[in-house]
Amino acid sequence: MSVVTVQLGQCGNQVGQELFDVISSDAQDGQRKTYSSVSWERFFRQTSQGDFEARAVLIDMEPKVINHSMNRAAKSGRWRYAEASHFSQKQGSGNNWANGYCVLGPRHRDAVEELVRREVEHCDVLAGFIPMMSVAGGTGSGVGTFVTQCLRDVYPSSFVLNHLIWPYGTGEVIVQNYNSVLTLAHLYQLSDALLVHENDAVHRICSQLLKIKQISFGDINRVIAHQLAGVLQPALTPDSCGAYSGNPLGELVSALACHPEYKLLSACSIPQMASSSIAFSTFSWPALLKHLRQMLIANTKMEEGIDWQVRPPPASAGRTGSLTAGSFNASLANLLILRGKDVYSAETGGFEDSAIYTSWLPPAEALSLWKSPVPFDKYEKSATLVSNSQALLRPLDDMVRKAWNMFASRAYIHQYVKFGISEDDFLDSFTSLEQVISSYAQLQC
Fold first, then answer.
1. pLDDT for 48 beyond 90
2. Which of 2, 27, 154, 435 pairs with 76 at a CA distance of 20 to 30 A?
3. How many angstroms separate the CA atoms of 194 and 184, rounded?
4. 53-67, 248-262, 308-322, 374-388 — which is least confidently predicted?
5. What is the mean pLDDT of the chain?
6. Residue range 349-365: average pLDDT?
């Protein structure tokens, strides 16, 4: 089954290009034919000349980033974007969600839907869509939300997994919290699940684990792409009878997004280190999984500097929802993906502990396990954890609070009203996200 990515805005197009680069590099190894053929078929189509073209649609309101992404893909020598797979204009969205959602999206709906339709027709069987976007800007967030709505309207039975980049907490755009609130509130009603990467967390990985001195958005995008590919590349599920999973999006959604109130997913990987250090490192499954379990419990995205003092509360003590730093991170569901040597000997019992999960879902249903004996990227052994937990509760609460403080003083509201978003639309979005925050806070109750 094939997955169509929809790359939206500067961020979505840059991360998407890095993702296809990681996948194509990983799938190129000729020693693992079944794994490679499934990967190529899932994310690429082969032309009559034998070239591999990404199953992707590129959308931006400015042409610069799309042109750069297409040129980089062509220069890789492994894959490229189709010449007619992109749509761009000469003028951006001005970092205004309302302009993207109410004006530019509807104006170009027919052209975008035609691009998607052509890409879908190249798929023998469509698994679903991955719209990739930032929540902070104008094109990615506003046009991206509108395009997600179109996908849901036109392909109601297909899975839609939105991949979202969360902005730096210190601020990239003055109205980023407005854009983020409007994006998340709308996507919560449209998407099957939202897989989120936080720029702040990825920046720390680049600095502390990869030892990068001058961190660029390219460095951040490569880390995100590596983690995302670790989730999407072929793996064996308990129900796949020895064959690689046919529908990764359907499997992921059914494993993690089992309730419409809980759709926020986060991901972390282990190991993560500079390439120059790998030759001097040894990895064992017990050590990797011990660290990954504590990363989950303590809500950290790095194996370095883990707070080992955080423990699940004993059942007799009861639980209280908390937004404080250093508190236990309760899970609704987890998907553990193991790749590499001796993968079938890995002991995963630590992730089956009922203390990790909410009381109303048994661990046997809350934990899903995928495995592949094929090493991923440059690591002999690696693990990726996708979690539906309280990991995003605090940043979501901070973002809503900052947006509300601006809204209370009516700062910049006129910039949204002139494009068709009313104050009632803002209030509806705040109400929606407050309900999400309340639901996740109650996971510990």
1. no
2. 2
3. 9
4. 308-322
5. 91
6. 89
Handedness of CA 249, 254, 255, 260 (dihedral sign): positive
pTM for the model: 0.94
Report the distance separating Cα 401 and Cα 406, nearest Å. Answer: 9
Say yes or no to pLDDT of 325 above 50: no
Which pLDDT value is given to residue 201? 93
Contact in structure between 269 and 209 (CB atoms under 8 Å)? no
Residue 124 burial (CB count, 10 A):
8
pLDDT tens figures, 272-297: 888 778 877 788 999 999 999 999 99
Greater confidence (242 vs 76) lies with 76
Non-local (6+) Cβ contacts of 282 within 8 A are none
pLDDT for position 275: 79
* β-bridge mates for residue 133, sequence order: 164
For Cα atoms 217, 219, 220, give the angle at the middle one, nearest 5 degrees. 65
Give the torsion sign (CA, 165, 169, 174, 175). positive
Mean pLDDT of 109-132: 96
Average pLDDT (221-233) is: 95
Q: Which two tokens stand for residue 340?
A: 């590499």
Angle 385-389-395 from CA coordinates, rounded to 5°? 105
Question: pLDDT category, 431, cuts 50, 70, 90?
Answer: very high
What integer pLDDT is reported at residue 357 of this predicted model? 92
**Residue 434, Cβ neighbours under 10 Å: how many?**
14
Q: Which residue has the tokens 């995205």?
A: 301
User: 306 CB contacts (<8 Å, ≥6 apart)?
Assistant: 291, 294, 295, 298, 300
Q: Could you write out the three-class secondary structure of the chain? A: CEEEEEEEHHHHHHHHHHHHHHHHHHHCCCCCHHHHHHHHHHHEEECCCCCEEECEEEEECCCHHHHHHHHHHHHHCCCECCCCCEEECCCCCCCCHHHHHHHHHHHCHHHHHHHHHHHHHCCCCEEEEEEEEECCCCHHHHHHHHHHHHHHHHCCCCEEEEEEEECCCCCCCCCHHHHHHHHHHHHHHHCCEEEEEEHHHHHHHHHHHCCCCCCCHHHHHHHHHHHHHHHHCCCECCCCCCCCCCCHHHHHHHHHCCECCECEEEEEEECCCCHHHHCCCCCCHHHHHHHHHHHHHHCCCCCCCCCCCCCCCCHHHCCCCCCCCCCCCCEEEEEEEEEECCHHHCCCHHHHCHHHECCCCCHHHHEEEEEECCCCCCCCEEEEEEEEEHHHHHHHHHHHHHHHHHHHCCCCHHHHHCCCCCHHHHHHHHHHHHHHHHHHHHHHC
